[in-house]
Amino acid sequence: MKSLKRIFELYDEILSLPHKQEVARELRDEDDLFLLLIYSDMLGIPNPAFYYTLELYPYIIEKFHDWHLRMGMEKSPLEGIRCC
Amino acid sequence: MSGIWLAIFGGIIFVIGYRFYSKYLAEKIFQLDPNYVTPANRYNDGVDFVPTNKFVLWGHHFTSVAGAAPILGPAIAVYWGWLPAILWVVLGTIFAAGVHDFGTIVLSVRNKGQSVGTLANKLIGQRAKILFLFIILILVLMVNAVFAWVIANLFISNPASVLSVFIQIPLAIWIGYRVYKRQGSMLIPSLVALAVMYLAAIVASYVPALQINLVEYFGGEGATTLFGMNATSMAFFVWIIILMVYVYIASTLPVWKLLQPRDYINSHQLVVGLSILYLGLLFTSPEVTAPTTNPGADTSWFPLLFITIACGAISGFHGLVSSGTTSKQLNKETDARFVGYLGAVGEGALALISIIAVVTFFPTLSDFTATYSSFQDASATGLGNFVSGAAQLATGIGIPASVASTIVSVIVVSFAATTLDSSVRLMRYIISELGEEYKIRPLTKMHVATTVAVVSSAALTLIPEGPKGFGSGGYLLWPLFGTSNQLLAGISLLLIAIWLKRQGRNYLPAVIPMVFLMFMTLWAMADQVIFEWSGMGDADANMLLFVFGAIILVFALWIILTAISVLGKKDDQNISNE
């Protein structure tokens, strides 16, 4: 009985693998867009909440390096954040 | 002789191949290291690079590569008798497909999880990458045309299957929505969807009103319809147009909406199909009525056998999956043997049961030879014979023959439809990439690229004329599909060989299957292009097949020449083996 349950779990995992990946990719895309909006000043678009974005610093700093690599920037585009 | 012996023979060779040859490859050739930090662990980002359990990864790899192609090729190739087909499937699987699938995973893992296309650029040069894109373009174009023909053909010959196939679409969208938006489990809803589909198949098998039979609708076989077309031609035309409209919409939707949920249902269908066929074989123990070999064949088995069975013996498409997704999810390097080699074996097992279903279907040898009277007849009727043979095996576990043939048709059409969706999508990406490469901006737009993909595929499906008229000759493209798939496998094997050589290792396990494949492709294409399609031989000229055949011939030649020049060099620069 236990092994049958394990087989079903394994089968479920096989089916969920591409799906989980797709959900994670969509969420990452949303996060990427959010980070881009935070740095909208860099593109010349005024950010009405620029003052408060500083509060997000501890949350985004860990993801920042991967983000700028994904955005096609090999080095950190910001003087203030020297991740690489 | 009982068909079970063929399955036992194939099974034993597969076990020996896995037990000994893949072990040799893992230890002596690829020198897998259990402590090597794979890209999944090194670049773990929770999205593309995710360390995954090897059983789960094998399941995912196998369901991604298995489809309708390993069923159709063997069902045609039994024309030359069961022995050549079985030998090519089992030997091809252990010596060519196993090395190819296993090798592309290892090559990609040792190169930061990069795909075969990127590695072609890195190992051979920019021209190789462009050529690689063109080969995939031809391959997906052939896939689109052949699989559209497969679906239209099965809809016409088995109208009871239409309802279930169309019911699958809203069910898949429902599952996609439910799982994506509400984060529910997908196992139960996809099993419910499968039950609904099979219920519809059972009901439609008994209720003619639920069978969507376009030939009857247009006045029955022999009736003349618009533009002087006969009813079957018209039915082909209408089905292909419907399919192309569907595939346009399906391939432009996000994958989670339709393609992925269909894949969940198809995974169940793969399990159901393989279980029904192998159990049915066990219970019915049918006699093999096909001949061992066919000395009176009108077309020689050499070299056509090796391109008629592509998927099931070796398939270049697997390299795209191995290096595109699987290599990024490999937890330990040593898992590559289990995932890659056994993935190829799984596909071989599917091809094996396809051969067994056809060679045991006919009551007597003369029935077999009457149906498989020429290579052209074998190509045109192979798929239908598989459906009937598989249905006969299914009766062994108590499923009535009419229901079984509907369900088998539904399974084959579902595989073909998902392949069609993915390959039109892939074609769209390649057209966009070529558009960027050659600065043709309109081609980079999604709808322009999709329109080009769909219209060219529809045209290619409709142009070859078969015995049933307009649109029924899609099977004529099968050798082109086989050769373009072998070309892709040839490039991947060449890349593996180059990498092995630069590590100072024995590269013969990759070079021998590559040379074999390219030699067969060259020979087959030269023979077909010069004597069959150019009009110089006995047959009438066929410009469409001539042009595509000539392109494939040139590409195969290019791969051989590149192999000679790259593998012949003494001072190679070092290639990554971190």
From TrEMBL, chain B:
Q: Which residues form the CstA N-terminal domain?
A: 3-361, 378-524
Say which domain of life the source belongs to: Bacteria
How does this protein lie in the membrane?
Answer: Multi-pass membrane protein
Residue spans crossing the bilayer:
6-21, 62-80, 86-109, 130-156, 162-180, 187-207, 227-249, 270-289, 301-321, 341-362, 397-420, 446-463, 475-500, 507-526, 546-567
Q: InterPro entries, from UniProt? A: CstA, CstA_N
Where does it localize? Answer: Cell membrane
Any keyword GTP-binding? no
- Biological-process GO terms, alphabetical: cellular response to starvation
Q: GO CC terms for this protein?
A: plasma membrane
Keyword field: Cell membrane, Membrane, Transmembrane, Transmembrane helix
Just give the chief location class.
membrane
Family, as annotated: Belongs to the peptide transporter carbon starvation (CstA) (TC 2.A.114) family.
Protein name (Swiss-Prot/TrEMBL): Carbon starvation protein A
State the organism named in the record.
Salinibacillus xinjiangensis
